[in-house]
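Need tokens for this chain, all 760 residues.
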Amino acid sequence: MKKQIKKYAFLVLIVYGNGFAQTKKHLNNKLPIEERISLLMKDMTLEEKVGQMNQYNGSWDVTGPKPESGSNEEKYNNIKKGWVGSMLSVRGVKEVRAVQKIAVEETRLGIPLIFGFDVIHGYKTLSPIPLAEAASWDLEAIKNSSRVAALEASASGLNWTFAPNVDISNDARWGRVMEGAGEDPYLGSKIATARVKGFQGENLSDNTSIIACAKHFAAYGFVEAGRDYNSVDMSNSKLYNTVLPPFKAAVDAGIRTFMNSFNTLNGIPATGNSFLQRDILKGAWGFKGFVVSDWASVAEMITHGYATDGADAAKKAALAGSDMDMESNIYIKELVQLVKKGSVKQSVIDDAVHRILRVKFELGLFDNPYKYCDEAREKSDIGSKANNDAVLDMAKKSIVLLKNDRNLLPLKKTGTKIALIGALANDKNSPLGSWRIAADDNTAISVLEGMQQYKDNTLVYEKGTEVATNKQTFLDEVKVNTTDFSGFEAAKNAAKEADVVVMVLGEIGFQSGEGRSRTELGLPGNQQQLLEEVYKVNPNIVLVLNNGRPLALPWAAENIPAIVEAWQLGTQSGNAIAQVLYGDYNPSGKLPMSFPRNVGQCPIYYNLYNTGRPTDKDQNVFWSHYSDVEKTPLYPFGHGLSYTSFAYKNLKIAKPSFQKGEKIQVTIEVSNTGNFDGKEVVQLYVNDPVASIVRPVKELKGFELVALKKGETKTIHFTLTDKELGFYDNDGKFLVESGLFNVMVGWNSNEGLTSEFELK
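Here are the structure tokens for all 760 residues:
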């Protein structure tokens, strides 16, 4: 079979090469890419150029009968004309080859298509949701997770993912926090780099590499009220210092595409925002790739009230730097006439097409348009044992131990009677998360299945209560159960007889993600009532949380002795959770987002600015606080415990003062003082107490994940440079100012050892 496939691919290349190479100089792969692009563009008509800026969703069976009517017929015919640059949601080698064959062998110029898909945290074999992966603070593991996703997606014929989401967000109401890396721009930038390198690999021409896409440009994580698709209104200071750094890190890592966002910024939709796309991205940052709109966001500028009609929307989007129109069909309908009328310059079209073609050449599609169409790889690389082992490793590293009073965890492996309670404990679908459209339903390992592997304990399972009352899908709202308590008694009876109760509670997989904003951040439905009722009969509870966002759980934080943040961990979820609960893996995760005490605190984040009245020094009400709850988070950014304990001592800065440009060396000793080997994320924070623009009370500027044997001590070294000490002013200029700097090194954003130095 492999020989036949290779023979087929070889024959295709011969036909493709012999049929075109003699007359099409751009197919000469000995020429530089830029020259090949120029040669090709000289042969292209205006219609063919605009076609490269057009992306369609594959909404028909490509290998089936030809569409005979409606939009699918138009899409099909436009592919044959060479008026399509990319397809999305066409996947599987057979389908991809069929479409690519039309584009390459049945059009005038034979320009290959790019095939895109939402490969967010895996393809068929799923890693944890991105927010969970961020909790690992393990950059190499995160890079490898994206590599696994790229391996499977590319084996299915795809060569472009709409990831990573690098939106910084500090509002847990927004459902799409599950797609990002949390609230901090420094951590977010490091993770953005890791994901880009994982997806794109060492060389884009390798058939296991896929193009990454940084999204959503920009400020989508700050939608008002945490409501998806809403407006954004923020200062330039926050834009430059919080929102943009992860996007810049993605550019520096070599990312080839950007996706703009649905929101407005300064009253202008991001799709039509030349300040973002022309001035910053393609101007100041020198980005050479291309920008794709989000789904129909070009057309949505009409609804925003920014464009009068399709022609106006096409004009404003193209002029602003949106190079490819995803599925609104506006570019293909309007741009040719706009150019002929002089409303849009030919140079605008040429720039966009040049960028798109550059990526296609970099992928090697002109040399082998079928390089991603390998049936043997499709069979061997998707769902392999190696991939499952990799996502299991990632899942274990993503788990955060929030609380462990009385050392209730790890569980004993023998002679213990355990009651496992909660519908999510026996759920094989929710752990897959929201963005898992290539995965098969009910393919996750459940917590019940994972715990059943430990056969020397007695395990009794009771559902307790359903979380939802309807079948959950990607397109529909989850209907939460608030009325059916019929399983409570059975759950309580099981708990009475148990030594330890493990309760798996939280969100259905489709309660976070796009379009899943929430104003209540507690346990959905009647799960909180179930938790309290079980607690009355047996307080020895381990609460395992399955969720896609920070939750507000003040009662549990006060009363439940052990709490494990297990997110939605993907295909190997149950095995990862069981191995952590039983101590076969010592948790080392740290929160990438602050957990609020209640939804009224949102947005809440550690790197806030001081007010003029931060404390109650005058012992009255006139200071920045709430009257009904503390202003601090329930669990702060960077928080996470271990089954062992760590001690920090001897924080040292090389000398008391430094010159600008000089490297500042910081060291600290960290010891494992407990009874288990473990890993600790050592975190360094900096504060610039007086600056020309007010700086946050502290900012993460370094971290190291260190493994320590029981009783072992290591000296951790950090280096601070102007890059870590500076900031952007309101015009986007990077400043490094002299003065005093405070340094804290610790185990979360709230606690640690402190010192200071002066920058002269």
